[in-house]
UniProtKB/TrEMBL annotation:
Keywords from the UniProt entry: Cell membrane, Membrane, Transmembrane, Transmembrane helix
Organism per entry: Flavobacterium bizetiae
Chief subcellular location: membrane
GO CC annotation: plasma membrane
Location of the protein in the cell: Cell membrane
Domain named EamA: residues: 7-136, 145-278
Name assigned to this protein: EamA domain-containing protein
InterPro entries recorded: Diverse_Substrate_Transporter (IPR051258), EamA_dom (IPR000620), EmrE-like (IPR037185)
Length: 290
């Protein structure tokens, strides 16, 4: 099997872990502090990556520290907003709305770097906004507070992807990923210290199971595959694998948590996935000649 095919399969597996982790996180945080949960998640992920890639730790430099800070701030913001939002909205809502970051990326590129937005992006954005409206707007023009936080988290993740793309030419991304996990762990530790709901050794069902699942397959594995796989896969294919995340999240939410999966969520979700698909397909690409 060629490496590009192997990493494509690994990325799809990683998006499955991402999607399923929404359910584990929602159960894990319960009514407690999301910051404690995230602190353990990032800390365990950092140690796992450091153990596997121990020899690459010597490659850490001042430049690595700078890159870690620049990509760590938006990732930390996006993750914190998403985790808090999960306390107040459903897994399927959170997953589909988070997927909007795929559409926000080209728009932010236009606003920040003045890069032209293709017509397909405008079409995709219209479809996604309609899908978002169908999913989250209830009782007129009111939004669930959790859904609002998830929309904000999508902006955080979009900025994170832009920053990662800016430094994607680095030859050894793993040292930066390890430091990234430690940076996020430290940030969550600081937030947890100021949270009155923080319990450092929770004895609640699902907390530690949720931490381990979110830390190892959904974070350590996925971030390692994501960064190494970029050497063998184009950005277009990588982005398209993210289409699987809300699908796996919704399935997990229905079968594990017993969440309702209404026609409203189905219709809105399909529109958002269609928008993501349209935004990543290269319609101008010439078909290969025989």
């Amino acid at each position: 099997m060629q490496k590009k095919h192997l990493y494509l399969l690994l990325l799809i597996a990683g998006t499955a872990f991402w999607g399923i982790s929404f359910t584990f996180v929602k159960v894990g945080i319960g009514a407690g502090s999301p910051f404690v949960f995230l602190f353990y998640k990032f800390l365990i992920a950092a140690f796992c990556l450091a153990f596997v890639f121990f020899r690459q730790l010597k490659l850490i430099s001042v430049k690595t520290l700078k890159i870690t800070f620049l990509i760590g701030v938006p990732l930390l913001a996006g993750t914190v907003l998403q985790t808090i939002g999960l306390q107040y909205t459903t897994v399927s809502n959170a997953a589909f709305i988070t997927g909007l970051d795929v559409l926000l990326i080209p728009i932010l590129k236009f606003l920040i770097y003045k890069k032209k937005i293709e017509n397909k992006i405008w079409i995709a954005c219209i479809l996604a906004l309609i899908g978002l409206y169908i999913i989250v707007v209830k009782d007129g023009l009111s939004l669930n507070s959790g859904d609002v936080l998830i929309v904000a988290c999508a902006f955080g993740f979009a900025f994170y992807v832009l920053q990662v793309g800016k430094y994607a030419t680095e030859e050894n991304p793993i040292p930066a990923v390890i430091l990234l996990m430690l940076f996020c762990a430290f940030g969550c530790l600081i937030l947890a210290l100021f949270d009155e709901a923080s319990v450092w050794l929770p004895n609640t069902n699902g907390f530690w199971r949720g931490v381990l699942f979110a830390a190892i397959p959904a974070t350590a594995f996925m971030y390692a595959v994501q960064n190494v796989g970029r050497r063998y896969l184009g950005e277009e294919k990588v982005a398209l694998t993210y289409l699987f995340e809300p699908v796996f999240a919704t399935i997990a939410g229905v079968f594990i948590l017993g969440e309702d999966f209404t026609y409203q969520v189905l219709a809105g979700g399909l529109l958002i996935i269609s928008a993501m698909f349209i935004s990543e397909i290269n319609f101008k690409k010439n078909p290969s000649k025989n």
